[in-house]
Design goal:
Helix content is 20%, strand content 42%. The protein is of the alpha+beta class and 84 residues long.
C-alpha cells in the first residue's frame, strides 16, 4: 500500500509508513509515518475496501498505544457510522 501525504498542499518527500491493526479494538488501525526524524501515529478505520478514515494523530512516547487515543478513535468511528 503506497503512502502519499500532503502538508499545506505539498506532498511530503518519501515518507515511510506502516499499517497495523490494533488488537482488542473495534477494528482500529494504526498508521505509523516516519518523516525524517519525526514519527507520527494516526489512528483510523477502513470504510469499505479503498477508504481509510483517520480519526486522530499523536506522537507515541512509549511502546504501548495510549488507551485514551484508542478510545477517542473508537468514539469517532461510532459517531461517523451514526451520521452516515
Amino acid at each position: 500500500m503506497a503512502c502519499l501525504f500532503l502538508l499545506e498542499g505539498r506532498a511530503l518527500s518519501r515518507p515511510q509508513c506502516y499499517f497495523k491493526k490494533l488488537v482488542h479494538t473495534d477494528d482500529i488501525w494504526e498508521v505509523r509515518v516516519d518523516v525524517g526524524r519525526n514519527t507520527f501515529r494516526l489512528l483510523g478505520f477502513f470504510e469499505g475496501q479503498a477508504l481509510i478514515v483517520l480519526t486522530n494523530t499523536f506522537q507515541k512516547k512509549t511502546q504501548q498505544t495510549p488507551p485514551a487515543e484508542i478510545r477517542l478513535a473508537e468514539e469517532r468511528k461510532a459517531d461517523h457510522i451514526r451520521r452516515r
